[in-house]
């Protein structure tokens, strides 16, 4: 048994899990060391949490060995990995019976498990009452609770626990985008004080943090002070410039980098994103970088392909986007998201639906971005039933969180189809309350379909949400006007006067004729008389209005004209 245990341990640590399984399964008898060697080996691999749980359950049923702290410490993360909350709670109870719950290693994995299973309140409560909270405990909570990362970091220091390099990396990565520059600089100061700012991982995270805070001068300062510049640091700086739409700086850093370091997939994904983000940058740069990716054999990698699809789509060449997608070797979520979003932005809604079905057949689960593009396609294509079905199955079938944008899109889709009561009911179900965009969409639909009842309710909520904006009042007034209820129109206008709400003048622009390559734009508003040919303009506008009203079947008229 001793030799077999040693073999299982050696094979597991060496990554030869198949060999470890073979030795383990052929053992005539197993003790605690045998079971722990197999459970720990599978847990360390990280890719087979379900099998970790299976082996642990076999251990309990076998009865030859009673699990100890090591066994429990290995199986709890597996429960979090597959979202088995109830099983995790049972093992938590088992740890209490074993008397090992108070050990910091058990407490740390339990906190992480509860976070991963979607019960942050349980995780926080457990963390609060832990007997001993070491650096791993604090780092674990920071990695799971990014919104409170700064306050947790301060609490850690008050608790007398010294942060390590991993703490800084985790905390800086978890920090929310709306944190203040002062908080970021405070963390940087602590990093300097502890002597960890020279560590590559911490410095790279500082660059990323400053980029998130839109302080690229500080990010460049950290970069310049690094004793050894590795590719991760270069990529972090280029990515930061790309995120902040500082394309020229990104191009300059890239040019400096390639003199000493060979760029990788992440480098090209970042530099292509930089070119994409600024429309004034010549497309020749994007094509040049595309050629370089092909020379280095990186053109078909998922991150590069996603960036290329996005680049060509935003620069108007959807055909090249399709080509980049077709050449992608591994079509992961990144590639599918890029091509679906590209077609959605170009109005190819049938292609969006088709791609979504292909994606489902390939076994790739969509995320919120993909689903928003698909819902948008359903909205503009009139696929109302399909859109509603996809929306209703997002959480259950796809495991995606519902965003306010998803709700607003479906509300608009239902409103366009005249299903106003259904749209209103869905809008009122929004977790954070009806959004302004959803309210505006539904109110606009009420005007189109002449629904006064729903329109009044929606306008009431919208005027409470935005009391000084004139849009809701104007739309409601138009609904009444089209119904011929002039008394209600007068009442709405009186409310606007009493509340000090003024309708902003809306302007439009028209190309009044090109000279060479330049456009001559004329700005005008309702009842505008500033143009010298005002009378002629109004006569033509009135004639066009009558012609439009007389067109019962625009398509038929157009066909007759063409013939």
Automatic annotation (TrEMBL):
Entry-linked InterPro entries: E_motif, PPR_At4g14850-like_plant, PPR_rpt, TPR-like_helical_dom_sf
Domain of life: Eukaryota
PROSITE patterns: PPR
Annotated PPR repeat ranges: 1-34, 230-260, 332-366
Gene3D superfamilies hit by this protein: Tetratricopeptide repeat domain
Assigned keywords, A-Z: Repeat, Transit peptide
Gene Ontology MF annotations: RNA binding
A Pfam family matched in the record: PPR_2
GO-annotated biological processes: RNA modification
Name of protein: Pentatricopeptide repeat-containing protein
